[in-house]
Task: structure prediction
Amino acid sequence: TRSFFYPFLNVLWHNKTLGNPKITVKDGPFTKYVNSVNLTITYMADPYLDEKKIWGNVMTNDTWDLVVCGIGNWPGSSSVQKQGDGLWPFSKYQKQIDQLVQQIDSFITKTHTRVIFHTVPAFGFADFDVWRNNRRFELYNEYASPRFQHIGVEVYHLFDMALSNTHAAFDGGHFTTFVADTWAAVLLSY
Result:
């Protein structure tokens, strides 16, 4: 997710990207090579992990050393929901997770790529979006985490890390650079 792309760059690269600016990526990846650590980081804008031309590209590529993925709080968002899709009932989230687990299980079996799934982070107070609340996100995470762990995917419990920092979010869902950079540093220490 975008909330991890910039923090990864900040932890690995001497030039800092402050905040969480929007990346406009419609049809493909945004890639940044970090010379100092000989590492390429690729961000793909697919908040629901369901776009064939984006997520499908990840699942058919055998050159990744590591895939970090997560859905974030988008299924609970009434302000940025997909056109015509409406808010996701819990059953739709379950169906999407079940499909992802099947895809990722097949991908790991074929490529032996290391995959880390990050849970939905805790959300600060946002009176504009009642579906984006921490109890809903806990339910999402309680459903997804054991399913991914069962197929050997590491689960990064971002909800737990974010919960004590919800006061440090710009708008409830996008955290300050210091907080997000810490999440990336911890993940890179795995």
